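Project channel, design review

CF: Before we commit to the Roseisalinus antarcticus constructs, I'd like one complete example in the thread so the newer folks can see what an input/output pair looks like. Taking Glucose-1-phosphate thymidylyltransferase.
RD: sounds good, go ahead.
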Amino acid sequence: MTDRKGIILAGGSGTRLYPITIGVSKQLMPVYDKPMIYYPLSTLMLAGIREIAVITTPHDQAQFRHLLGDGSQWGLSLTYIAQPSPDGLAQAYLLAEEFLDGAPSAMVLGDNIFFGHGLSQIMATAMARPAGGTVFGYHVADPERYGVVAFDDAGKVREIVEKPSKPPSSYAVTGLYFLDGEAPARARDLAPSARGEIEIVSLLETYLAEGSLDIQLMGRGYAWLDTGTHGSLLDAGNFVRTMSLRQGMQIGCPEEIAYAAGWIDADRLRDHARTFAKTDYGKYLADLLA
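CF: and here is what came back for Glucose-1-phosphate thymidylyltransferase:
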């Protein structure tokens, strides 16, 4: 078992999805046949991480607990942390400092979906780095919406620019961050930005300045979906549905990952299949046993 711990940042107010998120957290919204948070949770599980903190708003936490429990049904240990106000992505490291207790971490944003045959392998490379950090660059058509990687003439990363009006490249930094145990202390030293937030880009720049930030580029064989708008939420659901029907395999299935890793046994998987027996999801779990 890895000593690296996981963080899912599932707070925020979800205003870009209003009015559908007025009464429910964005990360509890359905993406085809599963709650959105199943997908980032599965990403951390594919990295072999079993100790995970779920950061939510105080008023949404009860719903997350009802959905996910303590994680033991998947062989996990889940801790819940309240985020009183959304003050930047890097704030997650301050909120989770006690949970991390000096351990390296892998943080994934609660509205991000990752898919690709080699995903486990590229995360394993990031997991193996004892110090520094690793983030992932993904080629997008609209880089001005993201933190963008700027390269020098030799192709090395020069800086990361947050939502630039004139993007220096088409590679956006995805919402998956592997950082060492220094991340909370580094985040504490950061001054809030002009919009009053502790920016994740500022945190990454502290690693980049000392040459300890690795940026791996995801190629054509990967999909990265940010489900923060109505259109992207619909696109994500259609993508998951198409891939599931076409290949007959689930995307973001915690039970399957846990069973394949030996974290749960056949009896526990059978229990899950019975719980969801009236759905295609339940039939899929039953087929895994067959």
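RD: helpful, thanks. Residues 230-247 form the longest helix (18 residues).
CF: The two ends are 28 Å apart (CA to CA).
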